[in-house]
Every structure is written in C-alpha cells, then in structure tokens.
Amino acid sequence: MVGSGGREHALAWKLSQEAEVVVAPGNAGIAQDVECVDLAVSDFEGLLNLCRTRAIDLVVVGPEDPLIVGLADLMRAAGIAVYGPGKEGARLEGSKAYSKEVMAAAGIPTARFGAFDQPEPALVFAREMVASGNLPVIKASGNALGKGVVVCNDLDEAEDAIEMMMLDREFGDAGSTVVVEERLLGFEFSLLTICSGQDYYSLPVAQDYKRALDGDRGPNTGGMGTYSPVAAVSADMVRDAEEKVVKPVLDYLRKEGVDYRGTLFSGLMVSQGKSYCLEYNVRFGDPETQTVMRRVNGGLLAALLAAAKGEPIPPVSISDEAAVTVVIASGGYPGTYRKEVPVGIPQDLPSNVKIFHAGTKFQDDSLVSSGGRVLGISATADSLSEARLSAYRVCDKIEFAEMHFRRDIAASSV
Ligand SMILES: Nc1ncnc2c1ncn2[C@@H]1O[C@H](COP(=O)(O)OP(=O)(O)O)[C@@H](O)[C@H]1O
Ligand SMILES: [Mg+2]
Hints:
By secondary structure, the protein is of the alpha+beta class. It contains 13 helices and 24 strands. α1 (6-15) packs parallel to α11, α6 (87-94) packs across α7 and α8 packs antiparallel against α9. 51% of the residues are buried. The chain binds adenosine-5'-diphosphate and magnesium ion (MG). Adenosine-5'-diphosphate is lined by residues 111, 137, 146, 148-149, 151, 181, 183-184, 188, 267, 278-279. The site of magnesium ion has 2 residues, from loops.
C-alpha cells in the first residue's frame, strides 16, 4: 500500500484481515496495525526495490499524485500487479479540462463548459453565461489540492476567480488552464467503483461533508466526515449513474487504448432527478473509504487483485450495518494550523469503534499531529443513529489542543 492518510489506514486495516500488508510510508496509527516502511510516495525507485525484495504480489496506490506522474506504469512495466490507473487514465483527475472533454466526447451528462488557456476568452464565456441567466463555476484544470474550484454567485466572483487563477497564478501551473462551467443545483454523492478495464463493481455509497463547520458553513476541506448507507441515494440512482457515468467513460478509455485498472470515483450531482458528473477522481475518496471499509465483510483483496490483473471482479461482501466516520482536525484547518501537537486517545475503545489515523506520527514515543486532518473516528452499529452516537462518544474523549470536528455528521439522516 502506497500512502500515509486515513484512506490508506482504512484500506490497509481491511486488507490485513486477508493478506500480509506493508505500507509506505504510513503513519503512527497505520504502524500499530501493519508494518510500515519509511519510503516517500514520490520515491519510485525505492518503492520498486521494496516490491522486488519483498516479492510483493499487489501494489495498491492510495493517493492521486503518484498515479498522475506514472507510478502504476513503472510498476506494471516491471511485471508487478498494481491497483491504480496509469498516467493516461489518471489524467481524468490530473486535468479537469481533459476530463470534461472526455465526458463530452463520451456523451456523459455534465455541466456545459468551456476550457481556456487565456483569461480573455474565459472572461467572455463567463459573461455570456451570466447574460443567459446561468451562474458559472470556475475550476483550475490542474491538481490544486481540492482548493481550485470557485462556485460563483455573480459575475464579479467569476471574474475575480479567473484573474486569481490565470493572472495572479494562485495555484501555479494548475491554473494555467481554467474550466468555466455552468453551475448546477442539487445534491451530491460520490460513487466509488472498482474497475478492471473490462469489468466494474461499485462499493456502497457514502455521503461526504466537505465544509469545515456545522450546517455546511465555513470553507471547503478535504472532508470532515462520512456516513453510509445513504437513504437519499437509491439503488436505481446508483445503477443509473453506473450506466450513464461509469460505463461510458470506461468504454471510451478502452477505445482510446487506456486499460483503466483502479478506482474510478465519480463525483455526481443530482439535479431535477437527473445525475450529472461533476468530476472524476482516480483513487478512493478520503474519508469515504474509512466509512465504506467498516462495512466490508470480506473479499476486498480478491476484488482489487482481479482489477489489477484485468479480470472479472468478484463482488465484495458488504454488511448491512451502518457506519459513521467523524474527522478530527487541527485548529485552523483548512487554513494554517500547528503541527506536532500531542494527541491523546483513550486506551479502551468500544469494539464497534475504530480510529483511523490521517496525520499523526510518533515523537519520542508520544503521539503528535502531523497534518490538518488528524484522526477519523469510525463507528458501526445496526442503525446510523447508534453509529453516530458511538463515534461522538469517542470524539469527546480525544484530547488535543485546538482540535475541532463537526457535530452534525449523519445528523439529518438518522
Ligand atoms: N457545475 C457545478 N455546479 C455546482 N457545483 C459545482 C459544480 N462543479 C463543482 N461544484 C462544487 O464544487 C465542488 C468541488 O468541485 P470538483 O469538480 O469536485 O473539484 P475538486 O474536488 O477537485 O475540488 C463540488 O463538490 C461541488 O460542490
Ligand atoms: Mg470533488
């Protein structure tokens, strides 16, 4: 397993029930469950050597960055089975302009858009959009760490966003191409699909909370909590999204000679009963994965291995239980925050609670924070309401200076 966040903790923990797992580089919490090796995700040579010396049967790549720059291709060229798309497939996440072009070419429902590498035509397009009664969303095409999207309420905001990205170059090269698209209204859900190039299999849907504060206020974050199952997303809606958003993009890629083996994460918005694709990501979601892994009974290893080998994917066994994950973040996150703050975790956890570490490390044998999102408190129970109560009971026992978490994860759904 390559990576060091809460997503990788959840995947490594689940896979370790079915296989021997080594994580590079991991974090303090992952190291309590499985072996960690101190290799950066960018150290491709080191990772390749590790695979050889340890005779690794399957590499699961957690984050998008190494996929975008071709880690999976390098490993495959060396004869190693990899779960994660190659560079070509990873462009779906690495370039929003490319991704939208693929959606258009494959007939996938998505917001009307234009892609621009000059500010003037982008401004003209945004003005015309507003004049025709729609509001624009401005997106830096490249990878801007989840901060490159501005959902605008008027033309001024759109103009400011285009200038901020293209002239002030707030996101560096990630903003040298900008996508201007029509703002849709509706509710969002994400579909995580295991893909083998030929076959695909979707995991249960989890609802994500993007904003920092209760009631969906405050700035966007990497995600402050998740729950599953999601009553608002019916089995029919999932099937519809698979038919219209997942299958056509895989078919399109195959025709282009791209054999997509890994997770396809479809970010969907349901607007007036119809699902639109907002974006694709090329890896598991964080913190969706923490919640979904709590509902997996078994069969994950077989599914990921089959996907990596381009074979039909055996279904994963999913429990009927509900799961809720609450993210505990550093004070100030998603803005600036302190690191190396001592983190206190209760010794005795109830058996239905698992703590996934996102940003922790050991310093002189004591646990300290090392990132913005620090822990994910993840509980399962027969009902969502019980799961959320269990999770929050443990949240209230976590101690670290200036920590914050949302109080309303799964609250409106129980
Ligand atoms: N066309 C759109 N209409 C309305 N909201 C949008 C649209 N595109 C994106 N958003 C909002 O912005 C968020 C981030 O956009 P997304 O394309 O998922 O980029 P990223 O996750 O890389 O920041 C979405 O989750 C959604 O809330
Ligand atoms: Mg997104």
